[in-house]
Amino acid sequence: MNTKKIAIAIDGPAGAGKSSISKVVANELGYLYIDTGAMYRGVTWAVLDSHVDVNNQKEVEALLPSLDLTLEPTASACKVYVKGQDVTDLIRQQQINENVSTIASYKGVREYLVERQQAMAAVGGVILDGRDIGSVVLPNAELKIYLTASVDARAKRRWLEVQGTSNEQPLEDIKKNVESRDEMDKNRDESPLVCVEDAIVVDSSNMTFDETVKHILHLVQERI
């Protein structure tokens, strides 16, 4: 059996299930999963925790050198550390959801994190997911996937995810948040969300989680 390890880039809009699907695929393949979204969330948490104005790009970028942002891969995902503090659970709060697209639109933030992502991916046998992996972070990835789903499907999934947690919200609010993040991600100046020409589009609106995983594993097998 050919055990060539490739780099896989998975892009797509907010709530398409990129992270949870990438984790399972990475596990199945014995690959390293690099949660780039969690890295942007980590920076957002640090900005809010330092009481820096989210809308002040200069101040946000000035904070970056002191963050010491690191990822520690675990069996189920990635732990995120900022200045040695484990912030893995803290970065899932609603306040982070509302501000992460703004932070991610800043050029300095993207450069800071892309450099880290490329260094982590250089070894091969990795899956990265985000908005600009195929276009900016790993333009030479052997397999590029654009994972998407309708706004309604994505909002419903997120709504089900937060039921019974402290982040619970009405479905209508979640739908608005998904739509506004799409708008921001597609229209920002720095590395907007795009479906690159050589990406394979996977629309999971009518697929179950397991069906989507199976389909992506099949695409990987074809590529190796």
UniProtKB/TrEMBL annotation:
GO terms for cellular component: cytosol. It comes from the Bacteria. GO terms for biological process: nucleobase-containing small molecule interconversion; pyrimidine nucleotide metabolic process. It catalyses: dCMP + ATP = dCDP + ADP; CMP + ATP = CDP + ADP. Its EC number is 2.7.4.25. ATP binds at residues 12-20. InterPro entries: Cytidylate_kin, Cytidylate_kinase_dom, P-loop_NTPase. Residues 8-221 form the Cytidylate kinase domain. Its main location: cytoplasm. One of its GO terms (molecular function) is ATP binding. It is found in: Cytoplasm. Keywords: ATP-binding, Cytoplasm, Kinase, Nucleotide-binding, Transferase. It is an enzyme of class 2 (transferase). HAMAP family: Cytidyl_kinase_type1. Belongs to the cytidylate kinase family. Type 1 subfamily. This is Cytidylate kinase.
